[in-house]
Amino acid sequence: MTDLRQSRSTLRVRRMGVDTSHEPVVYMHRDCAVCRSEGFESRSRVEVRIGRRKVLASLHVVHGDLVEVDEAGLSEAAWNLLRARPGDVASFTHPEPLVSLAHVRAKIYGHRLDAAGLKAVVGDIAQGRYSPAQMAAFVAACGGDRLDLDEIVMLTQAMVEAGERLSWNADIVVDKHSVGGVPGNRTTLIVVPIVAEFGLLMPKTSSRAITSPAGTADTMGVLAPVDLSPEEMRRVVEAQNGCIVWGGAVRLSPADDVLIRVERELDIDSEGQMVASVLSKKAAAGSTHVVVDMPIGPTAKVRTSENAERLATIFRKVGKAIGLKVNVVMTDGTQPVGRGIGPALEARDVLSVLQCRKNAPQDLRERGLLLAGAVLENSGRVPAGQGRAAAEKILDSGAAWKRFQAICEAQGGMRRIPVSRNRYDICARRPGVITSIDMRRLALMAKLAGAPEDPCAGIDLLVRIGSRVERDQPMFTVHAESVGELEYALEYLSGQEDIIVVADTEPPAA
Amino acid sequence: MTDLRQSRSTLRVRRMGVDTSHEPVVYMHRDCAVCRSEGFESRSRVEVRIGRRKVLASLHVVHGDLVEVDEAGLSEAAWNLLRARPGDVASFTHPEPLVSLAHVRAKIYGHRLDAAGLKAVVGDIAQGRYSPAQMAAFVAACGGDRLDLDEIVMLTQAMVEAGERLSWNADIVVDKHSVGGVPGNRTTLIVVPIVAEFGLLMPKTSSRAITSPAGTADTMGVLAPVDLSPEEMRRVVEAQNGCIVWGGAVRLSPADDVLIRVERELDIDSEGQMVASVLSKKAAAGSTHVVVDMPIGPTAKVRTSENAERLATIFRKVGKAIGLKVNVVMTDGTQPVGRGIGPALEARDVLSVLQCRKNAPQDLRERGLLLAGAVLENSGRVPAGQGRAAAEKILDSGAAWKRFQAICEAQGGMRRIPVSRNRYDICARRPGVITSIDMRRLALMAKLAGAPEDPCAGIDLLVRIGSRVERDQPMFTVHAESVGELEYALEYLSGQEDIIVVADTEPPAA
């Protein structure tokens, strides 16, 4: 029966040149023999094989003349995953039933997931077998506080096992992670060169933005290539003690990279999945000692110290269960760090700190030193209380800047920071003192302006809490690559209460 | 600013002839001016307008020559929703932020939804503003028992308000619904002609299958057109007292129709959403008295009488809150009703009952009479205990069959039942007595064979619990339109424990 099927269900493939993002799509004519004999319909899930490679794709049925009846079109994602070449013949079959979806349903119905169930779901996701809707159901079912500690540990382990795993010739491998929600908090690019210069191994893999205007990988991508293979990453770390690369390209915890795209579409990023996402990357990267930066503030991701304590406990316990020494550092999350919000603007701030420029944002410098110090202390190589000073010495000597340049060169060459084509200043409508800054809405504006897809888009913040402003003084600048996006961000602003609140400096005269 | 945008962001549209099912898709060349000035990327959500019509579409960016730089391709769903004509010019803008998604996130985080929140979400879904992933997150967030009674009432009301609402010139408008999970339970096609012949108004709108191999609308669709407009439906009911049409075509509770497609992809159908789905359709159709058929059995949707009682309570309470008199009838759900599973095979069984043929499945006849009797009694027009007899009299007189034919003619003409092209008998491997039938796996086989998309695909069940079989005697026949689907269903079977269990009739000799 199998032979019959294979002989019948093959078609020549054609590269359609359609970018459907990460979802593989197949285009078949409705009169095509495969379509008819297999009973495929629009949106059928179809397994496509070329040689030993296979992908699960969505079918779009063509009525007109976009494809011939004896060929199948492939979207860019399908073409690239199959490593297809012109003239290749592919076979098309119904996929095996997606058995692991039963675990997602069980979770929706409130049942606990076990290790085997999580492994099955995560494995299928990593192999691209879940549609966007099926992944969204998993994310929502596990969202909020719906995963208990054991489930988070098992999810973390399943995510590690679904991808590559690095190992290093060192007893101590350090790492850091910021929980996020604070725009501009780009300390990794400061911590890595300091720690690498100190002599510790810090093979850093970072994410692209989930719901923020820039992830560390987006900002580093402005300055150097970040999509390195595991072998390329290893060469950089062996030469420089550290690197800052995109985790997705090295296939560490690949399920996480797919889930992150769905979380972005839903604009959600929940506790259990956050811890699993962070620690699975660290474990897969071979880390042993991890510092977590957890900013707390009314518009940050973590809003109260109670939430911070609970989340910190999850981080420590899950870390311990999978063999990582995790130290959580609570930091100020009441306003953005540095000035820029968006990949290029943040990269500019980072360089000014590394170059020890006088106009460098002091808060970013301080945050970088605090965390670099915490990493040094958590490793046990620097006594408690002496980390910051050790880090400052390395930064102020210029050695960290040299090391950063060397890392960029090793990753493929340092790049020039691009500059936006459209800008617009938002000014104070009255004189006074800045009393609060809504980071969520500021971040949303940066996204509406095009960040992180357009690296030079974003916000340049010109004031801080406590700054005095005059009427019509610019408070922040919106940067965008296209006029349409600039308008889009400004339209959003026009319907909003003040994102930056200016209050009287003195009480009104009696 | 608005004028500038409109003049810049327009393109000639082109019908691509690509069927992307219900998701509207726009194809733009990556070098196209709109794409660049608006900063659109692959999978960007894009608002497309032609005249006063607008849709929210997903963008697929074209690298090759499928579209010119000065035109935008539209998928069939986008083309039809916009009622586009060749030569039309459409405008393309960033959609307004999807504010109602905040309520979905809140639900994921365990917060209760209020009326305004549910109305916002359901309204956006009914207007096609949610992507499949966003709808899946809503379904999962509200799945299991995560909606309380008030939330179910508010969800039901929101679903009614999001669509058309029918009203009838009658004090009593009756309806019935089967909860499902029992293949072949196609009693609606028997109940409607009996009740209509009795003289009560029964304007029945039915769903297509969610997770089953056939919904009532799929089965009725084999016998007559079911996608009638509200005006066409009204003419049928005014002439014949009853109809059996697809609810989606009359735009009653349109959000439900979209959600059902996502629930099918996830293979999930949860309690609160089920009640909201059912009763919103009834309320929107103008019903006042509703009978709910709730089959109970180990492989039915409702598995225990405790679950049945809980669900029945939700049905009655939500019904009362929105002004419906709901009566729940618990029925036997241990095995399929009738013989056929799949639209055409079920339609064949229904006709044999209406025609009072001797070989008609008696269980389907009995179930139809029981429910028709319950509908008559629930209306108050027939005293308690006398409903079944009244129904039987109408059926046996031949009047129900005449009425059914008249309804089919009024809906657009009675159709011939199609017959499958490929069949395969599954036989007993030993002699004995049938002790159990797994309806879930039988239904899954019918789906793998192509039901309900291929109406003649499905299963013909030749035995019942208690039947005696000999070795190699056929127990059921698999019907499929294509050889590929037949193989697909049989492959599934080969990896399974017995779907139908045959036990010894007598204990083995000592």
Question: Can you give a write-up of this model?
Answer:
2 copies of one chain form a homodimer. In chain A, 41% of the residues lie in helices and 20% in strands. Chain A is of the alpha/beta class and 510 residues long. The first copy, chain A, folds into 4 domains: 92 residues, Barwin-like endoglucanases, CATH 2.40.40; 97 residues, Transferase, Pyrimidine Nucleoside Phosphorylase, Chain A, domain 3, CATH 1.20.970; 200 residues, Pyrimidine Nucleoside Phosphorylase, Chain A, domain 2, CATH 3.40.1030; 82 residues, Aldehyde Oxidoreductase, domain 3 (Alpha-Beta Complex), CATH 3.90.1170.30. In chain A, the strands form 5 sheets. Chain A has a 6-stranded mixed beta barrel with strand order 1-6-3-5-4-7. Chain A has a 4-stranded antiparallel β-sheet with strand order 13-16-18-14. In chain A, strand 4 and strand 5 form a beta hairpin. In chain A, helix 4 runs parallel beside helix 6, helix 5 crosses helix 11 and helix 8 crosses helix 17. The longest helix of chain A is centred in the middle third of the chain and has 17 residues. The radius of gyration of chain A is 25 Å and the shape is globular. The relative contact order of chain A is 0.10. At the A-B interface, helix 1, strand 2, helix 2, strand 5 and helix 4 of A face helix 1, strand 2, helix 2, strand 5 and helix 4 of B.
Which features does this protein show?
Pyrimidine Nucleoside Phosphorylase, Chain A, domain 2; homodimer; Transferase, Pyrimidine Nucleoside Phosphorylase, Chain A, domain 3; Barwin-like endoglucanases; 4 domains; alpha/beta; 510 residues
